[in-house]
């Protein structure tokens, strides 16, 4: 199966897509990992979560002008509807996602 392009991934019909731009060397990214997993399981079947390593995917990172990691971008019907850089509590992330699921 061919790897889907970033554009194909975020155009997921019917459900919002949360993209986590991270780097292996980033401490706050590691801290957010369990939060992202918790949110993914909480919205299982209603939300798609994609993790993008900025070191391996510089094209996607530069396309969305990701300058710091972690950066979270929520896409709905292929459109960017929310974005935030830096770690945040799960509750804050959940509140944002609930507006779109």
UniProtKB/TrEMBL annotation:
<feature type="site" description="Contributes to redox potential value">
    <location>
        <position position="28"/>
    </location>
</feature>
<feature type="active site" description="Nucleophile">
    <location>
        <position position="29"/>
    </location>
</feature>
<keyword id="KW-1015">Disulfide bond</keyword>
<dbReference type="InterPro" id="IPR036249">
    <property type="entry name" value="Thioredoxin-like_sf"/>
</dbReference>
<dbReference type="InterPro" id="IPR005746">
    <property type="entry name" value="Thioredoxin"/>
</dbReference>
<dbReference type="GO" id="GO:0005737">
    <property type="term" value="C:cytoplasm"/>
</dbReference>
<dbReference type="Pfam" id="PF00085">
    <property type="entry name" value="Thioredoxin"/>
</dbReference>
<dbReference type="GO" id="GO:0015035">
    <property type="term" value="F:protein-disulfide reductase activity"/>
</dbReference>
<keyword id="KW-0813">Transport</keyword>
<dbReference type="InterPro" id="IPR017937">
    <property type="entry name" value="Thioredoxin_CS"/>
</dbReference>
<keyword id="KW-0676">Redox-active center</keyword>
<dbReference type="InterPro" id="IPR013766">
    <property type="entry name" value="Thioredoxin_domain"/>
</dbReference>
<feature type="disulfide bond" description="Redox-active">
    <location>
        <begin position="26"/>
        <end position="29"/>
    </location>
</feature>
<feature type="site" description="Deprotonates C-terminal active site Cys">
    <location>
        <position position="27"/>
    </location>
</feature>
<protein>
    <recommendedName>
        <fullName>Thioredoxin</fullName>
    </recommendedName>
</protein>
<comment type="similarity">
    <text>Belongs to the thioredoxin family.</text>
</comment>
<keyword id="KW-0249">Electron transport</keyword>
<feature type="domain" description="Thioredoxin">
    <location>
        <begin position="1"/>
        <end position="101"/>
    </location>
</feature>
<feature type="active site" description="Nucleophile">
    <location>
        <position position="26"/>
    </location>
</feature>
<feature type="site" description="Deprotonates C-terminal active site Cys">
    <location>
        <position position="20"/>
    </location>
</feature>
């Amino acid at each position: 199966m061919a790897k889907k392009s970033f554009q194909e991934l975020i155009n997921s019909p019917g459900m919002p897509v949360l993209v986590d731009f991270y780097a292996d060397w980033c401490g706050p990214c590691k801290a957010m990992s369990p939060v992202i997993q918790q949110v993914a399981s909480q919205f299982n079947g209603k939300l798609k979560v994609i993790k993008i390593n900025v070191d391996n995917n510089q094209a996607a990172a530069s396309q969305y002008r990701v300058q710091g990691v972690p950066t979270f971008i929520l896409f709905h019907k292929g459109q960017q509807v929310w974005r935030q850089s830096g770690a945040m509590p799960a509750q804050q992330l959940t509140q944002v996602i609930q507006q779109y699921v």
